[in-house]
Structure formats: structure tokens, C-alpha cells
Specification:
Elements: H1 2-96, H2 101-155
Length: about 160
Amino acid sequence: MADTAETVKKTVEQTAAKAKEQIETAQAAGAKAFREGMDKSVASLAELNAHGKKNLEALVESASVAQKGAEALSQQALGFAKSSWEEGVAASKELTAARSVQEFFELQTSWAKKSMERYVAEMTKANEIMTATVKDSLKPINERVTASVETFQAAR
């Protein structure tokens, strides 16, 4: 009976040692998996932070380009207004110096034609500035969208 008790005791000790070894192995594997998961999470957050920073930089660049375009458009409009005023004053002086009704209408018709041609030319310039500004201001944003799409597709 002593042998049986001794055998049971050894079996229990061996089983406990194996269980302890398995628990330690499981704990080590769990700790390793947890560390790897945390490392991946930290790396993902760093990547996300860098991505967000690049997006913000693109928005700032886009706003800067849009502001420069607005300034150019404003300068053009002010220049056009000033020269139109000056031409209007000059035309008024010419019209008041007309010697006949016929001359008056010829001068007025000529001035109106020049004014309309100049207006169309100015609107064409304004359209070109606006088109270029929109295109240039959207470029950084489009680049970031493309980069984001490529990043997400690569992650698949």
C-alpha cells in the first residue's frame, strides 16, 4: 500500500509539474501575443498620426493656394474697376465735347463697344484665374486621397 501511495504521490507531482509547465508556457505565449498586439497597435497609431498630419498639411497648402488665387482675383478686379472708372471719365469728357448729336452717338457707341470687349476680356481672365486656383488648390487634397486609397488597398 505504501508503494501505491508513493506511486499516486509521484503521479500527482508529475501531473502538477506538467500542469505548471503548461501554465507557464501558456502565460509566456499570452504575454508574447499581448506585447506583439500592443506593438502593432502602437505602430498603427503612429502611422495613423503621420497620415493625419499629412492630411492637415495638404489642407493648409490647399487653403494657401486658394487664398493666393483670391488675392490675384481681387487685384484683377480692383485694377479693372480703376481703369474702367478712368475710361468712363475720359469718355464723359469726350461725349461732352461732341459737336453734334450724330458725333455724340458715334462716340458713345464706340465707347460702349470698347467697354464690352474689355469686360469680356476681363471676365475671361477672371475665369482663368478661378479655374487655375480651383485646380491648384485641389491638387494637394487629391494627392492625399490617392495616397489614402493606395494605403488602404495595400492593407487589404
